[in-house]
């Protein structure tokens, strides 16, 4: 499932990132990598998804979020 389909309040693990190379490098700089644990905090009307990664909160637009694939986090 993609990040835009994820349920608010749930925790997931990033499995695949299908975004442009420059966006991929920026996400990696923010700590969002394959295998990273992500908590979905909120979803805004404008399509932005608020996530929590490694203690930091980030807002990702739907265009970027649709390129991030997730799986349920079980650890």
TrEMBL record:
Residues 1-72 form the Ferrous iron transporter FeoA-like domain. This is Ferrous iron transport protein A. Pfam families: FeoA (PF04023). One of its GO terms (molecular function) is transition metal ion binding. Keywords: Iron. SMART domains: FeoA. It comes from Lactonifactor longoviformis DSM 17459. Gene3D superfamilies: 2.30.30.90.
């Amino acid at each position: 499932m993609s990040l835009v389909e994820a349920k608010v309040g749930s925790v997931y693990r990033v499995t695949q990132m299908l975004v442009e190379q420059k966006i991929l490098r920026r996400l990696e700089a923010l700590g969002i990598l394959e295998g990273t644990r992500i908590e979905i905090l909120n979803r805004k009307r404008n399509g932005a998804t608020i996530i929590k990664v490694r203690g930091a909160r980030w807002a990702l637009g739907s265009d970027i979020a649709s390129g991030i694939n997730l799986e349920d986090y079980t650890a």
